[in-house]
Amino acid sequence: MTVRRGFPVILTVATAIAFLILVSLGTWQVQRLHWKRDLLRRIEALQAAPAGPIGPALARRAAGQDVDFTRVRVECPGLAAAPYLELYGLREGQAGARLISACAVDAPPYRAVLVDRGFVADTVSSRPPVDPASRAPLTVTGVLRSPDPASRFSPPNRPERWFTRDAQAMAAALGASAPAPVFLMAETPTNPEWKALTPAPVPANISNRHLEYAGTWYGLAAALAGVYAAMLLKRRKS
Q: Residue 184 above 70 pLDDT?
C-alpha cells in the first residue's frame, strides 16, 4: 500500500527564501556591473582628457556635482617640503604610507585641498625634507577623488599614522582651513629627486567580473529550483 506524504510546507518556505536570496544577489551583481562599466568608461575618458584648472572643478563640487576622477592641475608652492601626515596604504601587496599635505587654493568656499603625494613603503625609513617656509614653485597634476567613509573596522586615526581619509581632521592637523571634501591624487611627482615616493595614477586595469558573479548566483538559484522540483516529483511518485 502506497502512503502519500503531505506537502512539505517548511521545506518549501526555506527553499523559497533561499531562492529569493540567490536571485537578489544575482540582481545586485548586475547593478554592480552597470556601475563598474560606467566607472571604466569614465576612467577611459579621463586617461585621454587634458588636465584643467582645479578652481572650476571645486566650484562644481561645491554645487553638489560629482567630480570624481576629474583630472586637474594646481600650483602648490612649497609642496615638496610641506608638512605631511602618513596615511596607511597598500600598493602591490606591500604595506606603507601615503603622504598627505595641504595645498592652498582660491576656490570659494574652499581655501585648501589635500594632496596625496604618493606612496612610501614601510621598508623605507627616510622621508622627504620638511621646510614650512619653502615657497619653491611646483605644479601638481592629478585626479580628484572622494574619500571612502570609515567603516566599523577602521582603526582609530593616530598622529603618527592615519587610517581613514578624514579631510576636515587632516586639514586641521596640517593647519589648513576650509578644505575641499575631495583629495587630489598626484600623478606627477612632488619630489622627483626622492624616488621612494611613488605618485598614485588612476589604475589602468580594474577588474570587472560582476557578470560572472551574477551568472553564478543565478545559476545557484536555478539549481536550487531544479533540486526542489525533482524532490517534489519524487514525493509525488512515492
A: yes
